[in-house]
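User: My advisor, Dr. K., asked me to get a structural model of this assembly before our group meeting. I'm new to this, so sorry if the format is off. These are the inputs:
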Amino acid sequence: MIIRLNAEDYTVKGAKTVKELLDELYIQMDRVAVELNLKVIKKADYMTTSIQNGDTVEIVNFVGGG
Amino acid sequence: MDDKLIVSSIEIKSRLWVGTGKYKDFDETARAIEASGADIVTVAVRRVNITDRKSTNLLDYIDPKKYKILPNTAGCYNVEDALRYARLGREAGVSDMVKLEVIGDDKTLFPDVCGLLKATEILAKEGFIVLPYSSDDPITAQRLVDAGAAAVMPLGAPIGSGLGIRNPYNIKIILELIKTVPIVVDAGVGTASDAAEAMELGCDAVLINTAIAGAKDPIMMAEAMKHAVIAGRYAYKSGRIPRKLYASASSPIEGML
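Assistant: The format is fine. Below is the predicted structure of the whole assembly, which you can bring to the meeting.
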């Protein structure tokens, strides 16, 4: 399965849900927000939201800013 | 002095709010913020670095339990983008507060006030505590309050310019006009006296990033800003003397030889 992840193609190693994708990427879920096909996914829904081939996923976090 | 600052229903300890951009590294960011005494700390929302997972995270240095993290929508030039970043920031953070920016032009970074109004209205309806970065126009400020803003944050001068409070009279009019939400000067402060001036005018708080991060010694400047904001606030609350053209002696004439 290939998804568009943060503007680059990414071959998913086995993750079927948003939660599994974050685990696969070693990303702590409390520090990020995830958008799936332009829709922000609530943290409570990470485990039940599945990802499909061709999905566009954005994972963001906080960086320094004014 | 009992002088609480309340935004929406949130009590804010410090009237100095600080940004986290432009620092040398996260360690310097953390030390400057500590020295500033601020509890409101702004951050930007950006893509996670997927390839380098060893890179550290800002929140490893700025503890969200200790500070109120205020995500911004910096870099957004239209309403849709600003809404998108605000919603992502809310999900990544722990509160409904957003420093709303809808930028009109990349040279001045002045706000697009039409877009700002629209985005404020939409986000306020979604339950956000909207803190819009605004121009220093009193009518815009009033419209933002009408649209549901929880504070108005007029610029003192362009972002990062260090030009100080360019139009103190507009800020005064905004303060006269708006009594229901806090007024926070956001952007333009260059040094401590600018921060003190904003507070002496009667502003409720000042938001500073570049003036601290860009100083030769950011930690010392952070502390200077802390004192300036306190001094300015106290001067405002204590009521300054009127300006007079001629002298009036401080020492008595009586008892002179």
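One thing worth pointing out at the meeting: The CA atoms of residues 77 and 103 of chain B lie 5 Å apart.

User: Perfect, thanks a lot.
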